[in-house]
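Hi everyone,

Forwarding the result from last night's run.
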Amino acid sequence: VGGKDGSLVIDLKHFQQLSINSTSGVATIGGGTRLGPLYSKLWNAGNYLIAAGICPAVGIGGIALGGGIGMASRKYGMTTQNIVGMTLIDANGSIRKVNASSNPDLFWALRGAGGGSFGVVTESQIQIYKAPPSMAFMQLTYPLSKYQSVIHAFDTWGITAPDDIYAGLVFGRDNITISVSYLGCSGAAQVAFAHF
């Protein structure tokens, strides 16, 4: 694995711990935890969610170091914006606690500026949020011949759309689809998306 002589791959699959501090609203998440099991654990621990992606096989360690866009991003930001601390093992084998007040330059770099090259992040402390009691999902499909009007309407709507909505455009060979998720009930989602 790796494909380059002299490279090293470190498997964090056994770093799947999760602890939640409901007072501070922060979860400490092991660097090998994948999103699918993480979302289930957060839900079972008190109906919590984090701002992160939707692919269940993606690990928190990767998205925490460079992005994390998903259904709650419009309301809560990307994963990197919700990290309040990390534990890192540096090239010298030292364990470093990294946050806004301890190693602030490294904290900044780890959240998207360094390509994951400053050490091995074994855990992240990430802001958690109470999940809504329900979520709604919709897909609207239009013929590709209408792409200009769909894109214009989507751009215009996006400026004033509520933060509870997350939407994206997917272009197919013959059509364009708007995929929408809403942090709330389907009735409210339909009102918020009535523009279409």
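The radius of gyration is 19 Å.

Cheers,
N.
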